Amino acid sequence: MDLFNKLEGRPGPLGEFTSNGYGYYTFPKLEGPIGPEMRFNGKNVVVWSVNDYLGIASNPEIRKVDVEAAEKYGFSAPMGARLMTGNSDEHEALERELAEFEHKPDALLLNYGYQGIMSIIHALVDRNDYLVYDSLSHACIVDGKQLAMAEKFVYQHNDMESLEKQLERVYRNKKENSGVLVVTEGVFGMTGDLGKLNEIIALKEKYPFRLLVDDAHGFGTLGEDGSGAGTQLGCHDGIDIYFGTFAKALALIGAFVATEPRVVEFMRANVRSQIFAKSLPLPIVVSARERLRLVKENPQWRDKLRENALNLRKGLRELGYHVLPSESPVTPVMTKGSTDLCTKIMRTMREEHGIFVSGVAYPVVPKGIVLLRLIPTAAHTDEHIRRTLDGFEAIRDMVFSEAEKNQERLSLSEAIDR
Ligand SMILES: Cc1ncc(COP(=O)(O)O)c(C=O)c1O
Prior knowledge:
Elements: H1 3-8, H2 15-20, E1 30-31, E2 37-40, E3 43-47, H3 60-73, H4 89-101, E4 106-110, H5 113-124, E5 130-134, H6 139-147, E6 151-155, H7 160-173, E7 180-185, H8 197-202, E8 210-214, H9 229-233, E9 241-245, E10 255-259, H10 261-270, H11 272-275, H12 282-297, H13 299-318, E11 322-323, E12 331-336, H14 339-353, E13 355-356, E14 358-360, E15 369-374, H15 382-394, H16 396-405, H17 412-416
Parallel strand pairs: 3-13, 5-6, 5-7, 7-8, 8-9
Antiparallel strand pairs: 1-2, 2-3, 4-10, 9-10, 11-12, 12-15, 14-15
Helix pairs in contact: 3-12, 4-12, 5-6, 13-15
This protein binds pyridoxal-5'-phosphate.
Pyridoxal-5'-phosphate (PLP) is lined by residues 112-114, 117, 138, 140, 185, 189, 214, 216, 245, 247, 255.
């Protein structure tokens, strides 16, 4: 059979949405400066789907630095991979600043978060090692696991008994020269709950391992100084390799890991997604430095983000919606229903109430569940929250009656821990 013909009958889990809902439910085009109010489909909408947590994407100081850096360097420089011809003083300075921000001795810049962490997992463990990861891990960790040669064990989401059981299994057969890597997220991006970092770290005493934490959503947003979920939970030192991305709190592209110098040195020469790919353009690096500086100097952005998240959740709960017990800015609203309900909510909110929310249904979450994921930012105002809650109030009867009709009986824990 011709390979291309075969693809037509195999749309993949998201294919149905991309072909039927292109431009609306998937690949929508939000226009205008990034912020809580943008244009969609010719209308002004209040946006709850952009991970610009600290509301800095359109900050005038940052925009100025972006323009000046683009003018000075252009987007080509430096050409080549860092290892070959793509290094610069700016790249190295950013690494030092990231390490300092994360209270770790060293850091390594990554071109993209997804490829970066995937490739790091691949590089860290070999066929004699063990990789243990949370069942709700982001696709980049799952793909890193696919690449890794190590023996793999998965534990139920944030279930410490299940993690211990897997570590026992590892230690039953572990050879003298085998290492163990445990991977969790600091903030689980879909559900907003934090990884149980204290409990995971405590298990190191009994089953020595190294811990890699993907804190994509916690970097810049959690902890008093923004250094992430570990700081928030008081156990940052127990994280052996801290991963953060610029794609959320810094509203940019690029990522990093912060860890011991000997590990950074190893990674520089072994993380294939960095060795065989062009390094980040200089304007991006210069802008990342400026954004990090502003994040350090403006802790009130985190306070505002927290306040907005709390007000949004309180209002949604008062309306009777089931908001998952998130400990981060991520605000997940869960209801029972079909894909049809999910698209109906998105369309009605956008068209009738001017509120841009995104939702997911099967196959992203289990059948019978609709998960709306709202992302508050520090730039949202009380008025944005009020308008949004008015919209949710207006669709309440439609949502709740559909949910009642839905015959699926899925518990919350089943939904989260698929
Ligand atoms: C938990 C998590 N890890 C990693 C990534 C990938 O980061 P990037 O967008 O920088 O590739 C994301 C982004 O969606 C994420 O949510």
